[in-house]
Amino acid sequence: SSPALLLLTSFLLHIKEGHSSPTRLVCDNRLIQKYIREAKDMEKKVSQCQALPTLSSPVVLPLVDFNLQQWKTKSDETKRREILCELALLVAAVTGAQEQVNQECGARQLSQLYGPANSFLRLLQTFGWEERPWEPGCSPRSMEQSHVAGIFLTYRQLVQGKLRFFFDKLAKDSC
């Protein structure tokens, strides 16, 4: 089977999308748009939390900005590895923040963010490319963040940017 179909099947095993088919995940642009909307909603909800504390121990977040022209010149495997590194750092930041945030609203939002971020990470880890498998230990560009809202901003930017363009490329190749 094609790598894109394997990716989609694996993704569906980790994301609760009751009525989705593997082809729909990549071939139906509305699904990635749904994840972008959810990321925006989570970002908005966390900004509405009252008295959200500053993290006593800053978390390390990936810098997920990118130049689209440079991004287009990278191989799919390079893109996947870059996103994997950033997702691994993001999931670790969410976990680190969860250990520090006792405020109900913030803790609930972090818990909701952990699910899709970790699912994208697991999906891309298990995706089978011909090249060697992904290994932890990469070092993406990063920054320290003491504000919980910054974690949600980073996730939204990653989904809205690199992940969306990665899935768009898979769609062009597979649909």
TrEMBL record:
GO cellular component labels: extracellular region
Signal peptide start-end: 1-20
InterPro entries: 4_helix_cytokine-like_core, EPO/TPO_CS, EPO_TPO, Thrombopoietin
Cell compartment(s), UniProt: Secreted
Keywords: Disulfide bond, Glycoprotein, Hormone, Secreted, Signal
Gene Ontology terms, MF aspect: cytokine activity; hormone activity
Family in the record: Belongs to the EPO/TPO family.
Record's protein name: TPO protein
Taxonomic lineage: Eukaryota, Metazoa, Chordata, Craniata, Vertebrata
